[in-house]
Amino acid sequence: MFICLLGVGVAWFVRDFSEPLCKGMRHDERVEKALDDRYDKGMTCADLGAAVKAVTLGKQPGEHSLRQAQAMKDVVLAVADGLGEDGGELDQGLRLPLAEVLADYRVDLRENMGLTPVDYVRNGIASKPAWEDETGVHVSVNWRTALLPVVRAVSEDPDAYAVVREAVTRQAAEALAAMKPDGTGNTLSAPAAHSGWALGNLDGVAADVVSSLKSDRGREWQAAVLADLSRTGEGEKTAVPAFAEDAADYLVARWRGDVAAEGAEALERQAASMFGEWCDAVGVTGADREEAAEQIERGQRMAGRGALTDLD
Which of 74, 131, 244, 312 is a good FRET partner for 148, with 20 to 30 A between their CA atoms? Predict the structure, then answer.
């Protein structure tokens, strides 16, 4: 009798932690650890999304404790594993909350999606925790095996995709704004090339989403993304500030205008276009500028093709 009851108990435990909390996120010790006292095996998907935001976001946008950053890593890894069991599908109720979490970690997002620095590669191993250095708290996960599947899954919702793209766009603008105009060669191209790689990966994600949908739905998805990114979906007009007043805001606003005017083409050459706007604003001209722009645009295209291949 005891052996039978033990067998039933083990079966219940295994079943409990193999069944999904929501599609794409299963009962997992990492999720339970990350959510702590907010964890409830019977919680709804909406409650789960709210709980994930509560444990990963700080009091100020973009500012996180080590515990919050580690919770973010644990959740991303758990979702990546859950997607593997659920055919890559994520519950609609989790897409936007997870996108908002990813966006709040936009510094780390660009680093993980771009030409990944050595410290992010090293700490992207699942067993490596979030870390802190003189610049703040950081978190890293492997792009191909964890972050890419999660970004792809949240991007089924065009609003969620736009949230992630806006975050990378903002970080790309800030990287350009921090540059000095006297750079040459790699010094001139590297920051925008890094952003271009991250944006190219998002191009690949978008292409994969559109290709998975029927033509009408694909066009609707793309139209919704473009409306969000240009801020014309709700009739909002964004004023362009002076470059000297806020260089990053200037670059983002100029690019939003490009999206409104040119549509999807503005996404495909985004990194080089933003670099060109920065060059115009600070007076960079000549062969170095032209060579850098070509390298940046080529890198974005290569990253897009690579992400699309990885998602096949």
Answer: 131
